[in-house]
Design a protein that fits this description.
This protein has 431 residues and is α/β, with parallel strands linked by helices. It contains 16 helices and 20 strands. A hairpin with a 7-residue loop joins strand 19 (410-414) and strand 20. It is globular, with a radius of gyration of 21 Å. It binds guanosine-5'-triphosphate, inosinic acid and magnesium ion (MG).
């Protein structure tokens, strides 16, 4: 049993951290967002109700927790107030006993949003940003030209600033005092390791540190206070936006051509059936399309179709090391159901050499070819599995192989979007 846990994304974001955080939040006292802004999109399903958050920690749907938007984040005041008002409409009472914002978080201003427009700015287009002003805001922070939220609420008398003002606090003291008193603290990551500005596939990254280190600088908590780091991985891989993706199935262009979710929704059942048939006939693009459709891999923030591919154990092992993960959570295992063969990337071949180390040079990574191991899939629906033993033998073997390759224990398996579709296999590093 532990007191403080950092939850971090092990891949390119969208691993289902929202769901894992929601699950762990049940036993936490504080839930803290430490990096990024409303580029993130977490979806949490509770009692059949879907909640989408961009900025506010996923812990907000629980009673009696203090949610904190900490100093490492960038806050768009308009988006924050919109999320607060949406929650209020649903009957949640939002005050400073439930949500506070660090005085040192930085403010996303209209000029940041205008600049970060992939339709107008070639650089934003090249990276495939979410267009929310994240990069320009962090740039101004580092260049010491930014505006902290404390300055924003003092200098503006707009309705939006007035609404935020009572929630602005010096959160580093509050968090450290809570730890001192033995409270349970959950640090909620956004994005993922491979989108980290230091450790990811630069320049195809976000402008913050989603990795575990970011949880320390992003909150003002020292490394000696952290008990566990849980890395969240999908049972396969997705990426939204541009940049290298060694295990991608089909091409980025093919995926983008499919269009946003609203274009697929009406023909979903037929498209899914067609994708599975072609996937099992060996068509790689359709293997990816099957994952995209079955996993509903469309951006929470932008609706863009996500690029999909097999689990990349080379990249995953790198993420385990960079974050010092104590254990890993595997999500969306149910999505692989129906595929006759499942592949895992166990090494790369690049410039005629085989390597099991992740490649930090982005240009070189673009040339890396995945070397796969193949495993038999399963046909059974696993959405009701309550334990590891309930899973089909082939699914168990797949998970065991992921553990071997990542050299880390799996603590949690997720077999569906609902809170009750979560299997705890090892609670040593959980609350
Ligand atoms: P970022 O901060 O944007 O990286 O988001 P995230 O990691 O919280 O993930 P996001 O919510 O964007 O995407 C995960 C999606 O998968 C959501 O729609 C979840 O409801 C859903 N989901 C989570 N776990 C599972 C699972 O085990 N099975 C299935 N089928 N869906 C899941
Ligand atoms: P930005 O964070 O909007 O600047 O986008 C930079 C890159 O990070 C783009 O490739 C985005 O698609 C990606 N990105 C940012 N936030 C998320 C997220 O929450 N999930 C997945 N990808 C993200
Ligand atoms: Mg997301």
């Amino acid at each position: 049993m532990v007191q403080t846990i950092i939850v971090v994304g092990g891949q390119w974001g969208d691993e289902g951290k929202g769901k894992i955080v929601d699950f762990l939040a049940e036993k936490a006292d504080l839930v803290i967002r430490y990096a990024g802004g409303n580029n993130a999109g977490h979806t949490v399903v509770v009692n059949g109700k879907k909640f989408k958050f961009h900025l506010i920690p996923s812990g907000i749907v629980h009673e009696g927790k203090l949610n904190i938007i900490a100093n490492g984040t960038v806050v768009d005041p308009e988006v924050l107030v919109e999320e607060i008002e949406n929650l209020e409409k649903m009957g949640f009472k939002i005050d400073d006993s439930r949500l506070i914002i660090s005085s040192n978080a930085h403010t996303i201003l209209p000029k940041h949003r205008e600049e970060d427009n992939p339709k107008k700015d070639p650089h934003a287009k090249m990276i495939g940003t979410t267009g929310r002003g994240i990069g320009p805001c962090y740039r101004d922070k580092i260049a010491r030209k930014g505006m902290r939220i404390s300055d924003y609420v003092e200098s503006s008398n707009s309705k939006i600033a007035e609404k935020i003002k009572p929630l602005v606090k010096d959160t580093c003291f509050i968090i450290n005092e809570a730890i001192e008193k033995g409270k349970k603290v959950l640090f909620e990551g956004a994005q993922g390791t491979l989108l980290d500005v230091d450790h990811g596939t630069y320049p195809f990254v976000t402008s913050s540190n989603p990795t575990a280190g970011g949880a320390l600088t992003g909150t003002g908590v020292g490394p000696t206070k952290i008990d566990a780091v849980i890395g969240v991985f999908k049972a396969y891989t997705t990426r939204v936006g541009a940049g290298p993706f060694p295990t991608e199935l089909g091409t980025e262009e093919q995926t983008n051509k499919e269009g946003t979710w609203d274009k697929i929704e009406d023909v979903y059942d037929e498209a899914l059936k067609e994708a599975l048939e072609k996937a099992n006939a060996g068509d790689e693009y359709y293997q990816g399309k099957y994952m995209r459709l079955k996993g509903k891999e469309y951006g929470t923030t932008t609706g863009r179709p996500r690029r999909t591919g097999w689990f990349d154990a080379v990249a995953a092992r790198y993420a385990v090391v960079i974050n010092g993960m104590s254990s890993i959570a595997i999500t969306k295992l149910d999505v692989l159901q129906g595929l006759k063969k499942i592949k895992i990337c166990v090494a790369y071949e690049v410039d005629g050499k085989r390597t099991t180390n992740f490649i930090l040079n982005t240009k070189k990574l673009t040339r890396a070819r995945p070397i796969y191991e193949e495993m038999p899939g399963w046909d059974e629906d696993i959405g009701d599995a309550k334990s590891f033993e309930d899973l089909p033998r082939n699914a168990q073997n797949y998970l065991k192989r992921l553990e071997d390759l990542c050299k880390t224990r799996i603590s949690i398996i997720s077999v569906g979007p609902r809170r009750d579709q979560t299997i705890v296999v090892d609670d040593n590093n959980l609350f």
